[in-house]
Specification:
By secondary structure, the protein is mostly helical. It has helices spanning 2-22, 25-32, 38-60, 64-70, 80-100, 106-122, 129-160, 166-207, 224-239, 243-252, 258-278, 284-299, 306-337. Helices cover 78% and strands 0% of the residues. The relative contact order is 0.22.
Length: 341
């Protein structure tokens, strides 16, 4: 019972860290274009991250991404020590990348940690390779989709507004940035909160055979308080800032205007809604980065700081294997002192 409680607490802590690590993505452009102050922006994003709970619960009617994450590892190989090792590794990697100002993926950190601990405990036959390969493929696909959508949206908007008064047009785009930022924050809440829900669901399923009274047989039995807590924690994390990553996303990749900020956020939101429909957990970081690159490349390719982009790509590719390695080391270390079977 104590181990399950510790896992749930750490999962919610991870969700909070995810909030100030990842949710900064939804306010980066709106802060860099000075549409809102940093404090106003985090309140704005936090509100819509929390609103996503009610959309998933009462409009969509399911938490499909949580289901996908919970099935990363075959049920018979899921144990509480495996989940504990995975979540500790994910927290460590998230804090390291936050400290360095690298907008890496909390999603892939969590999945890599979960899979790495399971592999150390039971071998490669413990993981669902098809699910992990599909998730890993979107490390590249999500930013590419975001970039293509941003290119198309920018081209369309520039064509429609080519005869507009520049001053009036910018005023409108500043207002529209509030809408696009809200849409992206909802997409972030829908996508990222469910990943932690999936891990908590896996822990409660693993606890069911132990007969401790709080286990569940399947994710459909997940109590409502779990979803509510996950969405609440990621919203609170958003309110805490994550300013190092805001600076990277808002200014270091390319300089953005209100028009470009609105387009980037809209393209990112559309990509997140598409992956929500497909029930594929993707990185909101990757998505918005691709969209920002797309709007920068529309002006000219040299407007994008490709050196920064290359460093981000390396961090993205390393996230799953590094998190998996960390989790396997943590699991192995724990097994030297106590029996984890």
């Amino acid at each position: 019972m104590e181990l399950l409680i510790a896992i749930i607490v750490l999962c919610l802590l991870f969700d909070y860290i995810n909030g100030f690590h990842d949710a900064a993505n939804s306010i980066a452009t709106i802060v860099s274009t000075k549409v809102l102050t940093p404090f106003q922006a985090v309140l704005w994003a936090a509100f819509f991250n929390f609103t996503a709970f009610f959309i998933a619960k009462y409009i969509i009617g399911e938490f499909g991404i949580a289901n996908t994450v919970s099935k990363t590892v075959f049920e018979q190989y899921i144990t509480l020590p495996v989940i504990l090792s995975g979540i500790i590794a994910a927290i460590i990697w998230n804090l390291v990348t936050w400290w360095l100002g690298i907008p890496s993926s909390s999603s892939h950190t969590l999945i890599g940690g979960f899979a790495g601990a399971a592999i150390m405990a039971s071998g490669f036959n413990a993981i669902r390779s098809v699910v992990i390969i599909k998730i890993a493929a979107f490390i590249l696909l999500a930013p590419v989709i975001g970039m293509i959508m941003a290119l198309l949206l920018t081209t369309a908007v520039m064509h429609v507004c080519k005869k507009a008064n520049p001053y009036k047009a910018e005023s409108w785009f500043r207002r529209l940035q509030l809408v696009s930022s809200a849409l992206f924050s909802i997409g972030h809440g829908l996508n990222d909160s469910q990943k932690v829900m999936g891990i908590i669901a896996a822990a409660m399923i693993a606890a069911h055979p132990l007969g401790i009274g709080v286990g569940i047989e399947s994710i459909e039995d997940l109590p409502n308080w779990v979803a509510f807590s996950c969405f609440t924690m990621i919203s609170l994390g958003t309110m805490s800032g994550g300013w190092k990553i805001v600076r990277t996303m808002g200014t270091r990749i390319t300089k953005v205007t209100p028009l470009e900020g609105m387009v980037a956020e809209s393209a990112g939101a559309l990509t997140l809604y598409l992956t929500e429909y497909l029930k594929i957990p993707v990185s909101t970081t990757h998505t918005i980065t691709g969209a920002i690159i797309g709007v920068g490349a529309t002006k000219r390719l040299s407007a994008v700081r490709w050196g920064v982009t290359k460093n981000l790509l390396v961090a993205w590719i390393l996230t799953i294997p590094v998190s998996a390695l960390l989790a396997s080391i943590i699991y192995l270390t724990g097994s030297l002192f106590v029996s984890l079977k």
